[in-house]
Amino acid sequence: xxxxxxxxxxxxxxxxxxxxxxxxxEAARDTEAIRLERGPLADPELLxxxxxxxxxxDKPHREVTQHAKQTxxxxxxNVALHKREKNCGDWLEWIADGLLGRCLAELPESxxxxxxxxxxxxxxxxxxxxxxxxxxxxxxxxxxxxQAELTDAKGGExxxxxxxxxxxxxxxxxxxxxxxxxxxxxxxxxYVDVRINGSSLPLFDPEGCRLDPLxxxxxxxxxxxxxxxxxxxxxxxQPLLGRLCILALPEEKAQEAQRSLLRRRSGKRRRQPxxxxxxxxxxxxxFVTAPRHLVSSAQAFLIYRLRWQVELAFKTMKTVLKYGQxxxxxxxxxxxxxxxxxxxxxxxxxxAAASAAIPPESAAA
Length: 365
Prior knowledge:
There is one protein chain. About 45% of the residues lie in helices and about 15% in strands. It contains 14 helices and eight strands. The protein has helices spanning about 1-20, 25-30, 45-55, 60-70, 80-85, 90-105, 180-185, 215, 250-265, 275-280, 295-305, 310-320, 330-355, 360-365, and strands at about 115-120, 130-140, 145-150, 170, 190-195, 225-230, 240-250, 285-290.
């Protein structure tokens, strides 16, 4: 049984290796993940297997190295593994970029490709705030990660972090509603469907007068929507035409949104929302750059609702791979840990997609 179990493990590892980008072994030395050619972990394959195995199992170094010794994989101390992990961040980032680049290249050509963007945070033990932020782009309908970037807590959320191709429709929440980020998508040949609040993104009418979205919204009945032309002014100085789409929520949902706003802001050190913010909660404001013949105002709101898919992707990572809470306080090993988790998620996505594409034997027959 032990031999059979070992054979299955080896088969699984071979399947994992087939998903890795070409040149991953050479990259271990190019990125200085392996600096000295001595010890068992000077082998890129063994090192990656140990690092990914620890991330996937969510076990401490001691248990991982003991298991590796018992199964005959490698005899190495937990201290040696920990030291190697300190230098693996750039290597794992190289591997993740390779996996994501392949995903991006495989996206189907179509008039519009839905790209949901968001970020999730991770904290070191004892931390009272965010230490790392993972910025991701999730492709629909496959709900797979097509782009990702890991930053420290200072890395802000922006459309500018993502590569844009013609036909992309980027969907983001309020934090992505900036003129420069929207211009980045426009210059790449894509469109945005982004939520804004009543004043965060300055909007102008065709005559150059400042628009007040909340003032416009006050004229709507519950459940009614409006769609009008609006310009933004990026730092480049070139006005960019889009559409301001406003939906007045039904009375019950409007009250629920206002209560939710007040609950989120309740706390000793949190500022209470102003009257304008409370009133704005009754409406959904979107800025859309896609032309009306491609995305109507009703479709823009339906597309924005799909953002729950990226939340579902994050939830899967956090529940299945336990992404988010770091095992130690070191920033270098924390980065290695998070990138290893991301690589595990990307490999699992590819294996699952390949399995789904293979018809069952009964169907094939």
